[in-house]
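Late entry, flavin mononucleotide complex.
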Amino acid sequence: MDHTSQSPAIVQGGMGVAVSGWKLARAVARTGQLGVVSGTGIDSVLVRRLQDGDAGGDVRRALDHFPLRSVAAAVIERFHQPRGRAPGQPYRLLPRPRHGESPHRSAWSMVAAFVEVFLAKHGHDRPIGINLLTKVQIPTLPTLYGAMLAGVDVVIMGAGIPREIPRALDQLADHRPATLRLDVTGSDPRSEVRLEFDPSHHFDPLPAPLLRPQFLPIVSSHVLATTLARKSNGRIDGFVIESPSAGGHNAPPRGTLRVDADGQPIYGDRDTADLAQIAALGLPYWIAGGQGHPGALAAARAAGAAGIQVGTLFAFCDESGFSDALKRQVLEHVLAGDARVRTDPRASPTGYPFKIVEWNDAAGSAPDAHGTRHRHCDLGYLREAYALADGSIGYRCPGEPVESWVRKGGSIEATIGRRCLCNALFAAADLGQTRPEGTTEPPIVTSGDELRTLGTFLRGRTHYSAADVVSYLLDGA
Ligand SMILES: Cc1cc2nc3c(=O)[nH]c(=O)nc-3n(C[C@H](O)[C@H](O)[C@H](O)COP(=O)(O)O)c2cc1C
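Prediction complete; structure with ligand written out below:
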């Protein structure tokens, strides 16, 4: 997908936070398929890696190539701890994202996305993509711009309706100011609040124009694909069509939410995208969710798709960013046959169903086993903006401490079952915060339903590489 070569057959799904980091994306790209980094929370990923010492020097090597030298120097000076953190020492935090934040704050997202894409592209000439969650709005523009400064080839975005991204990509490629609408709960719909990002606040003079990456929205229905194709404010280059079996966040079922005996959302026929209608839009598409087995690629192509997007199989490979201990545990429980994936309609503060890996926990080893998680909200990526009586904007998250959410006008009911997902996902990538009482934030592991069949792929192996996944998927294609 370098605009001259053919589309890739396999897209490695973007997996946040830091699960599809540069190591995974690069390993996949080297096999000739599309490697995708996650841009979610990437600014905090960068500063935590530096505080952990940046062993091997990769982050600092990438920073050496960042065009704004003073920004790169400031990042290293403020956050690099050559010997890593002392035992019990918490990570230093960045200010949480907010509307109207200073160019100085936006620069952290920009430089972090640059580093991730730069490293993913290093050592080969294959394209690299970046994945962002549409719902996490505030860091989007500087993250996209930083990724584009590193030459990102594809932008893939789901979890929301990314209607305004195409034009923003055009603008950023020419270093023009770009804006996106910020959703503000309770605000007057007539007074739009816009997020703004202006490259000229960072560069003088402006550099040469950048490559405008291809844009692939992730959708779960042909209705949304059609709306995006017709009503986006610029060029869309294709779609990822994701079914509810995919890992991470899922689209909610259409209509009234009904749950099964385990409290999982029940999906029906109306939740299956009509591929013929999507094909009629004339754009290439990749099918995601439950495609991680031999034969899936051939079947997808026979149905008119350009290929498949796969996450779960890649999520537990050697190059993925999940902590080694968690990967080992998950694979052990898959082999023992007691790993389960539950679709939790409440866990994510976004309101989207979110898949969580669980297993029988006699030894107390399951992530998040005892419900000991405390609510913190010190990362703040999933906070919603809401209108305050004086016309200004506040921020709140149903996963934050209940009293503070209620003080901000939220209902108690909205907090039930919600998890402090930002902290939990950083913890799963070995970037969990150390708390004053000496504990480390407990992780949550997400996966697609296909985890159930991972045993068939493992054939007794206790670990495997991204290249093993690609050969398996190409088998028989
Ligand atoms: C661990 C994990 C994290 C994920 N995180 C994201 C994410 O941050 N953004 C996103 O668009 N999709 C995310 N996904 C979905 C994948 O990109 C991909 O579409 C999906 O995994 C494909 O289905 P499969 O899991 O059956 O292979 C995630 C999936 C997994 C397994």
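Residues 13-16, 19, 38, 40, 131, 133, 158, 218, 242, 245-248, 288-290, 292, 309-312, 315, 446-448, 450 surround flavin mononucleotide (CB under 6 Å). Will revisit in the morning.
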